[in-house]
Amino acid sequence: MISLKVGSLTGLSSKLGLTRSTPAPAEPEPTPAALSGKIKAPKRPSRRRAPKPGSSFRPKLVLASASPRRLQLLEQAGLAPDALRPASVDESVSKGEVPRQIVRRLAKAKAEAALKLVKNEPELGKCFLIAADTVVAVGRRVLGKAELENEAADMLRLLRGRAHRVYTAVTMVTPDGKWRERVVETRVRFRNITDQEIGAYLASGEWRGKAGGYAIQGIAGAFVVKLVGSYTNVVGLPLTETVSMLAGEGYPVALLWLAKAEVDAE
To answer: I need a surface site. Which of 10, 60, 149, 191 has the fewest CB within 10 A?
Structure first.
C-alpha cells in the first residue's frame, strides 16, 4: 500500500504542472447608458435648403398685370411674383385682326411697357417678366373686356346656348433678354341661360373688366356645360404653359416648391 503525506499530492501536482488556476472574476456587462456613450448614431444626410421667395439665390419674377386673377394663379402655382408692374396699353382691335394675332400683339406690348419700368429699378433689372392678354371669340367676332353693363348683357346673350373660344397669349422676357411666347386656346360651351339669370348675374358686378363679360371662377362657372382645354387659361393665365416656359429658361420652379414644402413642415 502506498501512503501519501498530506500536502505531497499538492506538491506532486505542482511539479507536473497540473495545478488548477483560480478563474478570474467576470467583467460586469456594460449598461445601456455606457453603450450609448460608445456607439455613435449615424449622421443624417444634410439636405440643401431651397431658396425662399425673394431670396438672392434666384432671379426676381415680375408680373406685368394688375389682374388679381393672374396674381392668384401664380401664387397657386407656388410662384409668387416679387413685383407687379401693370402696363397701360391701347387694347383696341384693328380691323381684320384674328383672335390669336390680337392676344399676341397685346401681350407683347404689355411686356415691352413693363420692361421699360423695371429697367429703371436696379433691384428688378435682371428679372423674369411675365405679361398676358386674354380675349373671348365667337367665330371671328372678338369680345374684349366688358366695362359697361349693357356691353356685358350683349355678350352674355351672344354666348348663351353656344360654344365660344378663349385665347390667352403669354409673353416672357428672361434676365438675359430672351423673348418667349405661347398662345393657348380653350373651347367653352354655355347652357341656354335665361334673361332672368343674365339680369341677376349683371347685378352681381362680377362681369366688370372680364373678357367676354363673365368670370368662370365665380358665379358664371354655373353657366358652363362643356370645357375643352385649359381651365386656368379661361381664368386668365394658362399655368401649365407659363410654368413650363419659366422652368425651360432656368427659373428655379422646383426649388421654390421645395421651399414651400419646408415652410409648411415648420
So the answer is: 10
Q: Which residues, including other chains, have CB under 8 Å from residue 192's CB and lie 6 or more apart?
A: 160, 161
* Residue 218 domain flag: yes
Q: Of the residues 133, 154, 195, 264, which is catalytic?
A: 133
State the residue range of the domain holding 112. Answer: 60-265
Q: How confident is the model at residue 264 (pLDDT cuts 50, 70, 90)?
A: low
Q: Is 195 a catalytic residue?
A: no
Alpha-helical regions (H) of the chain:
8-16, 32-38, 68-76, 99-118, 149-159, 195-204, 231-235, 239-248, 253-265
Whether 57 has a pLDDT exceeding 70, the answer reads no
- Helical packing angle, 253-265 and 239-248, nearest 10°: 110
Q: How many residues in total does the chain contain?
A: 266
Specify the CATH number for the domain of residue 261. Answer: 3.90.950.10
Q: Of 46-55, 116-125, 157-166, where does mean pLDDT reach its minimum?
A: 46-55
- Could you give the dihedral angle defined by the CA atoms of residues 211, 215, 220 and 223, in that order, rounded to the nearest 10 degrees? 50
